[in-house]
Amino acid sequence: MNNSWNILNWNAPKPILDRQLEVNRRQFLGRTANGVGLAALATLLTRDGLTAAQDDSSLPSIFRTIAPKARRVIYLFQNGAPTHVDLFDYKPRLKELHGQPVPEEYLGGKRFSTMTGNPQGKLMLAPVEPFAQHGQSGAWVSQFLPHTARIADELCFIKSMHTEAVNHAPAISFLLSGAQIPGRPTMGAWLNYGLGSESDELPGYVVMTSVSRGTTCGQIFYDFYWGSGFLPTRYQGSKFRGSRDPVLYLQNPQGMPASLRRDLLDDLAALNHIRFQQAGDPEIQTRIAQYEMAYRMQSSVPALTDFSDEPESVLDLYGPQVREPGTFAYNCLMSRRLAEKGVRFIQCMHAGWDQHNSLTTELYTQCRDTDQPSAALIEDLKMRGMLDDTLVIWGGEFGRTPFIQGSLDNRPRWGRDHHPYAFTVWMAGGGVKPGITYGASDDLGFNATRNPVHVHDFQATILHLLGIHHEMLTYRFQGRYFRLTDVHGSVVQDILNQGS
């Protein structure tokens, strides 16, 4: 063996060491500002999120400049666009003009989906089911939704929503992230980043999905609907599957005791921490946090999905499908249980509302699957004293055309196309005035005409209810500061309870 060469021979070439010694400006900042700086910031702020606090009143987020009315959000997102003119937006003139062409003055060079093509000459379509007024508020609700009609006095209907996108995925992305192109953080990720989690045992942002049985809707739940975009991935939504075992690979493998798993995670965290000190990559911190969260979820998730502690009266309230994992009813009850455990943002998405040719068939199924559970969630939260600080939102990405898609002579195939110029959402609890209708569309439900609410206004209002000025919650990426509302948005003050 040649003794002139060994690992202790400092005269020998050592390319790895040489490379480490050649620290340039970028590496220095990465290893100091991002390493030591982020570690110090994490200590100064809180354990769980950038600005998380266990008690919102005693230690508010640095992003909170307004007294919050809501502590959490449950977003009942209806993928596919519910037809506002058949469910909430009563327009008698639609019945008068049934079968007549769209009046030219309503079109005005507007953009529609390629399925509509040129809207000129399209025939107006009356509501499929009759409407009636309900509650002391006198809110108009279709017979499609009898359970929603029952709780009308708890709801705030916004009938002047409008958006810029004409197709589903861009419109959903726009509503949830503020941009039609995927890649921006979604609303739940922004709140997870800005406010942190109140729960030690569950993620701060949870997503559940469902689809009505027998639907022909081909809607896909893209992961970017709950993504963190350029925020660290620890803030993205955690998707719970529609089964009794909602999180994959959560349980220890057979033969591995909990003590061994704990030792393994401790050693893994130590190795990751060493690497973080070297590289300063925040994704390493995400990895450590997610391993720890998964460990805690091993006990919290099985208890969460065990409905045996729910009274029969509560299960009956949500309807017969509540016992079936993966249904909208099951997910609504899970949403309440998640809210009780401190989850900040719960995104409960239900697909199938894309009635291009199924207004007289699948729309009935869609309403039957979602109507009772949605109303039950409001009633359940109210009974438990949680509605006041829980903001519940129900709505889709746009509305549907007042004119028909298809042939008027073929009633079983009646449909409506995408319509971004006016649609309806409702909100409840969390600092929103109950029993009111805000804004209006024109006499055909075609355009938002009174107090129009743009998507960015809607987003700004949600953040306001959680105590955040929408211009304050920002993140610097690629040389500029981004926010959920982009460079737009005004809070809709008239729907807020006094003092909100």
List the defining traits of the structure above.
single chain, 500 residues, alpha/beta, Alkaline Phosphatase, subunit A, nine-stranded mixed sheet, two-stranded antiparallel sheet, 13 helices, 17 strands, disordered N terminus
Number of domains: 1
Give the number of helices.
13
Q: Compute the separation of the termini in Å.
A: 80 Å
What structural category arises from helix and sheet content? Answer: alpha/beta
- The CATH level-2 architecture is identified as 3-Layer(aba) Sandwich
Average pLDDT number: 86
Low-pLDDT stretches are: 1-10, 32-59
The main β sheet shows up as:
9 strands, mixed
Number of strands: 17
Which helices and strands, and how do they pair?
Elements: H1 15-21, H2 25-44, E1 72-79, H3 84-87, H4 92-96, E2 131-134, E3 139-142, H5 146-150, E4 156-162, H6 168-177, H7 187-195, E5 205-211, E6 238-240, H8 258-279, H9 282-304, H10 312-318, H11 328-340, E7 345-351, H12 362-383, E8 390-395, E9 399-400, E10 418-419, E11 423-428, E12 436-438, E13 440-441, E14 448-450, E15 453-454, H13 455-465, E16 475-477, E17 480-482
Parallel strand pairs: 1-7, 1-8, 4-12, 4-15, 5-6, 5-7
Antiparallel strand pairs: 2-3, 4-11, 8-11, 9-10, 13-14, 16-17
Helix pairs in contact: 2-8, 8-9, 11-12
